[in-house]
Amino acid sequence: MINAGTASSALSVRCAEWTWEQGVDPIGSALECDTFLLVETPPPWPRDVGDIPALADVVPGLPRGARLLAVAPADGPATAAGSRAATTAEADRGEAGNGTDRGGGRRGVRVTLWRRRNSNGLQGSDHIVPRERLTEGILGLLDRDRGPGLDAVRNHDRNGGRGLGVRPGPGHGAEPGADPRLGRGRDDADEWPPARPAPAEILLCGHGRRDRCCGRAGARLHLEVRSSWPGVRVRRCSHTGGHRFAPTGFTFPDGRAWGFLDAPALDGIVRRANTPAELRGRYRGSTALDQWGQVAERELFERFGWGWLDHELTASRTEVAASGRLATVELAWQGPTGAATATASVAVVRNVPVPLCGEALDHAEKTSPELSLRSIEIRRTRGTQGPRMENDATATAVSRP
Question: Which of 31, 82, 213, 265 has its CA 20 to 30 A from that of 162?
């Protein structure tokens, strides 16, 4: 077993800088998630957003596979009809105690819900929820049209082989325009604007009380790029996991996690000016899959190029060896190139310390496995035809060091 970082353990380190210097591959570090709940809440945020009083009662009601994130408000306050155009932070603070702005309108909280539509995409909707009924409104959003997520496509077999699961067709989850106004009278509901489809979005972690690297590098990157791409909303958010890869972020609607970000890399992602292979050292993985599946999926992403996002995983299975250091991943998909399957072997190549930012390396309280693809075999389903991948190696096995 190889462990990184023993030579300079007495020196204080910045977690992201140290991890970058060690050449750690971030793949497999993305969280596995089918629902992202984004609640506009002014920073600074406590270390755990569940400690924010307005959100404390939301956390116990989160369904499996959901992630709650605080996001910094993008603009002026959200209020009921008649005063929604308030434009200054002062107006938002003016009557916080009674839930109104200075124009007399009742204030609300912007909530964005991203729900998985398929393995390569989520569907987003923006809502305004009354501040005085925030918990009820948010939980109502989560309950409305709740689908099975991707549980039907996943079969994380830890003890040896059951059959592949097959997910139902697309369309489950919250649709754009789904109305959050549950549990209120009609007259009250009509005061509030209906939900709207969410725009393409980038979330950048700037959660300084969780990690110094995120608070410094992530917040700085947000300021640099927040108005860079017309039609793409860029927001600062709370902890996304993997702070050692800061700056970190998510892109929607594709539901992918990224690390070691900078402005040129983000531009290459948004405009697709860089190939997935060129972004290899910054891609943390697809939130549709577990850590092992994320490693195998990256190989497909690189081979298909951005056209991979037009495909749909129809089955996934992970079988982890008893040692916990090796797994076999099976994936099946369909799309413009036809139907195919892949069998991959993924291994832990080393355990890497997760530094406490600003402290000596030997103060690290845990390690994290670095994963690598050992081999993959891709097979077209018999009788299917279609365009070839960018780096087509169908029906061949590819071994990695």
Answer: 31
